[in-house]
Design goal:
By secondary structure, the chain is α/β, with parallel strands linked by helices. The chain is 42% helix and 23% strand. The chain is built from 14 helices and 17 strands. The chain has an 8-stranded mixed beta sheet with strand order 3-5-2-1-8-10-11-9, with helices on both faces. The chain has a 6-stranded antiparallel beta sheet with strand order 13-14-12-15-17-16. The chain has a 3-stranded mixed beta sheet with strand order 4-6-7. It is globular and about 75 Å long. Bound molecules: aspartic acid and magnesium ion. The site of aspartic acid has 11 residues, from loops. Aspartic acid binds next to loops.
């Protein structure tokens, strides 16, 4: 079995949907299980509808939902309209789902506020609809598409909006729902992004979570491969919007891919990989708009013999928190007390450097910063540098490649660095620079390391 997952842009328009169905049909022999995102833009519309309803603007919410309905009806008609009984059964299902969401939104607008639980129920609609549409279209094409409700497969805790999947329960459920269908030569089609909690409520896995669903399902059924079909040729040496000379990486390790995903190489959701890693399932990133390109294969071993820098990644909107105090000298437990403040404020720390008298840390989330800084000030003198970007060189054995750091400094000439870290794993060498100069720095580093420039 293989898992084939399509992102929103791969199912966002009727001709793309046709292409996606073709891609699945061509892989019929490998017993595909399909996971789809919502049609591009739909999740955002559903978030907007929930917010409009909560603000008492039910008409606006209703209009958004109507637009979503029409879009699915139009694609449905184009794809399955020739089989009128299929089409009618599809629109009946569509109608039931839309009706349910409409009454929730009405409730939300009457109460004048929304709960995380109600929000999840509404935003999961995108994947509920896209998966039903896809399964009908698949049936018209191959007679073997069958819809499987992800609520019956992905079992989670009840942290609405960012639920954690329960792997043992999910595996057991997948064996009862997906595997028997596949054994009957059916092609199961599921919506990504959502699941159901043990208490029976619809939950979502966090924005961009459909890749995560695909990896969970792949691990649960012991798939031989998980294919993530998106709108780029694969993971690249850099963001091609900044660096047109960026190249596709043919083979990378799970670790390299996770570093890149974390640093905002927007190809994969950072959480996606752990189920695949644990199940040692290869993940292939492919382009629906260019199916002939080989894409990137992510495996445990990656590229044989590869060493040194493999790719560059950048993350914007970073804040550096610098803490300085002489009390740190020869005092034990001081770092623990500092980081305890971060923990108490629920602020995740990414990069850290320390010296005898100072500690610098980068944080992503600047919302909680004021309160955090107030408490840190009790322990150290604190300064905050906003609007930074982290640039990470991702690769292997970077600690053993003396040329890398030298090349990095050469290419940063004239661009001040606020912080720098090299993990002992040698996987990631990161520098923090002014966000306004980050593109410039990225281009220069890419030129030096990947384009043979100086
Ligand atoms: N539709 C969801 C989102 O936009 C999940 C996904 O596409 O992965 O966040
Ligand atoms: Mg996505």
């Amino acid at each position: 079995m293989i898992v084939i997952k399509f992102g929103g842009t791969s199912v966002g328009e009727t001709h793309r949907l046709r292409q996606a169905i073709e891609i699945v049909a061509e892989r019929r022999e490998r017993r595909p299980v399909v996971v789809v995102s919502a049609l591009a833009g739909v999740t955002n519309q559903l978030v907007a509808a929930t917010e409009a309803a909560a603000a008492g603007r039910f008409d606006e919410a209703l209009e958004l939902v109507t637009r979503i309905r029409e879009r699915h009806e139009e694609s449905g008609f184009a794809l399955i309209g020739q089989k009128i009984d299929f089409y009618e059964s599809f629109t009946a299902q569509l109608g039931r789902q839309i009706e349910q969401i409409t009454s929730i939104l009405r409730g939300v607008s009457l109460v004048g506020e929304t709960s995380p639980r109600a929000k999840d129920l509404v935003v999961a609609l995108g994947e509920k609809l896209s998966s039903v549409l896809f399964s009908y279209a698949m049936r018209t094409k191959t007679l073997t598409g069958v819809h499987v409700d992800s609520g019956d497969v992905i079992v989670t805790d009840d942290r609405f909006g960012e639920a954690t999947p329960l792997m043992a329960e999910t595996t057991a459920a997948a064996r009862l729902t997906i595997v028997p269908e596949s054994e009957r030569s059916h092609i199961p089609v599921l919506g990504g992004f959502f699941g159901r909690s043990l208490s029976g409520a619809t939950t979502t896995l966090g924005r961009g979570g459909s890749d995560y669903s695909a990896a969970l399902i792949g691990a649960a059924i012991g798939a031989e491969e998980i294919q993530i079909w998106t709108d780029v040729d694969g993971m690249m040496t850099c963001d091609p919007r900044v660096i047109p000379a960026a190249k596709v990486l043919d083979l990378v390790t799970y670790d390299e891919a996770a570093e890149l995903a974390y640093f905002g190489a927007k190809v994969l959701h950072p959480k996606t990989l752990w189920p695949a890693v644990e199940g040692q399932i290869p993940v292939r990133v492919l382009n629906t708009h260019n199916p002939a390109s080989p894409g990137t294969l992510i495996t445990r071993d990656g590229k044989p013999g590869a060493h040194g820098p493999r790719a560059l990644a950048m993350r914007n909107g970073i804040t550096v928190v610098q803490m300085t105090t002489t009390r740190m000298l020869e005092e034990s437990g001081y770092l623990a007390r500092l980081f305890d403040v971060f923990a108490r404020h629920g602020v995740a720390v990414d990069l850290v450097t320390t010296s005898e008298v100072s500690v610098s840390a980068t944080v992503d989330d600047s919302k909680k910063l004021d309160a955090l800084v107030r408490d840190l000030t009790l322990l150290a003198s604190v300064s905050v540098i906003r609007d930074r970007a982290v640039i990470a060189i991702v690769g292997r054995d970077l600690t053993r490649e003396p040329e890398v750091a030298a090349a990095l400094f050469r290419s940063l000439a004239g661009i001040p660095v606020s912080m720098m870290t090299l993990g002992s794993s040698g996987l990631n060498l990161s520098v923090v620079v002014d966000a306004a100069r980050a593109d410039e720095a990225l281009r220069s580093i890419h030129r030096t390391l990947f384009e043979g420039g100086a």
